[in-house]
């Protein structure tokens, strides 16, 4: 078997990323992912964004709520600046190439690789005998999402890094096993001040839609008053802000608020510190609350407006799915061919 040489240049740049429509979107999703999705779109790169409903059902979802949250996430994307004419925006279950390729990747990925996924271990906890098989196989579906488009770059928050590494391993093993240079070795794009937004109640824990405390997060659906209150009540320490970013090293709550400010204002944490060195939280928190309201409220308002017309959201997702399918279908058909499946209806 020939050793394939990976030449990423051989693959046209294409961005893919996804968000689970389980529970509303948080400030973590917005700063760690969505805001950066918009930036990538505006840089003129081909961008494919997916609401991963098939991933969402790896834990129980109420059907009516899932449908609603998928529409709400789509509205959130558009309100945040995703233009469905420029980016491809769709929900995963409408493009069957994802699950087809995922099955093939279930045969490529090794049990050992999957068993090392920290997100599975975190989510399963002590309950690993009782979680769905889908939750274990989750990262293979994620690899399929990305590679069904031969995506070269995937903007994500830090928590997804290990899954992208697995995607790279799956691509490399597939290429190697079949002696092809078919899949790119995708690069994670983890950049900016907010790659890991932490809980407002505990700066050592990730801000998450599944945290039982609503005070721990800002939701994309929160109104101005709620955003402001949550930030003013955010956990902090009694010290003023330090003179340099190094002074934040052992202050997770303070660092989190500085990072959030930086990401919202398109600044670096060092620039924020330069502006607020020595300030008390009594000064910094209201400034952050005002900034968060100024940046988030227009998105919430627009999202609410878009949600008035669900049929229009469904049309946008259908159109996106059609465009996504046009890219993914031929790629997955070629995969069937490579692995030796008879596909007479495509010949
Ligand atoms: P999900 O739905 O948990 O999160 C979506 C995106 O938001 C980022 N994110 C955060 N970033 C910074 N701080 C936080 N507190 C925070 N919380 C979430 C995540 O890193 C992610 O970028 N497995 C993925 C969904 C997925 C996917 C894909 C992503 C499925 N297929 C293919 C990329 C490519 C997930 O559960 O993300």
What does this entry look like structurally?
This protein is mostly helical. The protein is built from 13 helices and 5 strands. The strands form 2 sheets. The protein has a 3-stranded parallel beta sheet with strand order 1-2-3. Strands 4-5 form a two-stranded parallel sheet. Strand 4 (153-155), helix 8 (161-178) and strand 5 form a beta-alpha-beta unit. Helix 3 (63-80) crosses helix 12 (281-306), helix 7 (133-147) crosses helix 8 (161-178) and helix 10 (252-265) packs across helix 12 (281-306). The longest helix is centred in the last third of the chain and has 30 residues, at 310-339. The protein is globular. The model has no long low-confidence stretch (mean pLDDT 95). The structure holds tryptophanyl-5'AMP.
Task: Summarize this structure briefly.
The chain is mostly helical and 347 residues long. The protein is built from 13 helices and five strands.
List the helices and strands and how they pair.
Blueprint: E1 14-19, H1 27-42, E2 46-51, H2 53-56, H3 63-80, E3 88-91, H4 97-108, H5 111-115, H6 118-124, H7 133-147, E4 153-155, H8 161-178, E5 187-189, H9 224-232, H10 252-265, H11 269-276, H12 281-306, H13 310-339
Bound molecules: tryptophanyl-5'AMP (TYM).
- CATH homology superfamily name of the largest domain: HUPs
Poorly predicted ranges (pLDDT <50, ≥5 residues)? none
Q: For the report, how would you describe the main beta sheet? A: 3 strands, parallel
* Number of DSSP-assigned strands: 5
> In CATH terms, what is the fold-level topology of the largest domain?
Rossmann fold
Measured distance between first and last alpha carbons? 27 Å
Helix content: 40-55%
How many helix segments?
A: 13
Number of self-contained structural domains: 2
Structural class: mainly alpha
Order of helices and strands: EHEHHEHHHHEHEHHHHH
Order of strands side by side in the largest beta sheet? Answer: 1-2-3
């Amino acid at each position: 078997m020939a050793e394939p040489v990976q030449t990423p240049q051989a693959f046209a740049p294409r961005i893919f990323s996804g968000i689970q429509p389980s529970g509303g979107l948080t400030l973590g999703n917005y700063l760690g992912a969505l805001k950066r999705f918009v930036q990538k779109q505006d840089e003129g790169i081909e961008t494919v964004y997916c609401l991963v409903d098939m991933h969402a059902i790896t834990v129980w979802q109420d059907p009516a709520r899932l449908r609603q949250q998928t529409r709400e996430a789509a509205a959130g994307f558009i309100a945040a600046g995703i233009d469905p004419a420029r980016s491809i925006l769709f929900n995963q279950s409408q493009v069957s190439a994802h699950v087809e390729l995922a099955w093939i990747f279930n045969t490529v990925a090794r049990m050992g690789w999957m068993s090392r996924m920290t997100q599975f271990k975190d989510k399963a906890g002590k309950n690993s005998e009782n979680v769905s098989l889908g939750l274990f196989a989750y990262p293979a579906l994620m690899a399929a999402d990305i590679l069904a488009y031969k995506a070269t770059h995937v903007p994500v928050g830090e928590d997804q890094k290990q899954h992208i590494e697995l995607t790279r391993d799956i691509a490399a093993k597939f290429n190697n096993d079949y002696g092809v240079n078919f899949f790119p070795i995708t690069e994670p794009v983890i950049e900016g001040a907010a790659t890991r937004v932490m809980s407002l109640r505990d700066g050592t824990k990730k801000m998450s839609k599944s945290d039982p405390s609503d005070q721990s997060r800002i939701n994309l659906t929160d109104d101005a008053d709620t955003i402001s209150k949550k930030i003013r009540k955010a956990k902090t320490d009694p010290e003023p802000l330090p003179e340099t970013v190094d002074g934040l090293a052992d202050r997770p709550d303070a660092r989190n608020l500085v990072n959030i400010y930086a990401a919202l204002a398109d600044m670096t944490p060092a620039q924020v510190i330069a502006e607020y060195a020595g300030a008390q939280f009594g000064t910094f928190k209201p400034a952050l609350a005002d900034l968060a309201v100024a940046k988030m409220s227009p998105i919430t308002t627009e999202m609410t407006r878009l949600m008035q017309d669900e049929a229009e959201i469904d049309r946008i997702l259908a159109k996106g799915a059609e465009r996504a399918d046009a890219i993914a279908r031929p790629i997955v058909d070629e995969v069937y061919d490579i692995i030796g499946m008879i596909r007479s209806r495509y010949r």
